[in-house]
Amino acid sequence: MDVAYLVAPFATWLVAGCAKFAINSLRAKRLAFGLIGYGGMPSNHSAMVTAMAVLIALREGIAHPAFGVAVTLAFIVMLDANSLRRQVGRHAEAINRLNAATGVAGELLRERMGHSRLEIAGGIVTGALVAWLIDMFV
């Protein structure tokens, strides 16, 4: 088995996660440990599925059936990140406002969910770059 296919998702997750932490920390002007998780730039999920699709394309070719499966999975993940999970975040914002207005105590729901198209594009670029580097060196 080609170890690159095992290295790619973990390396991409690490690179995208570190980039997200750095970007969030710069925006917040403090170490942003509380902002780690869903949402933000770049999209970890988009980066990981892109890295696998690009690595398959580089190693096996775009005519290989695995490339078709990887691209299909990537589209599903990216559409979900931009639509469903984004809407979940908006619902959480509304519920938190409603709870605050009515005096309901409790833990706030996490509002930062899903991704904008720019964050998904950042994930695509990150994933493609990591896959290219893995193809060259692993």
From TrEMBL:
Keywords: Membrane, Transmembrane, Transmembrane helix. It holds the Pfam family DUF212. The chain crosses the membrane at residues 6-23, 35-56, 62-81, 118-134. This is Divergent PAP2 family protein. It comes from Pseudomonas mangiferae.
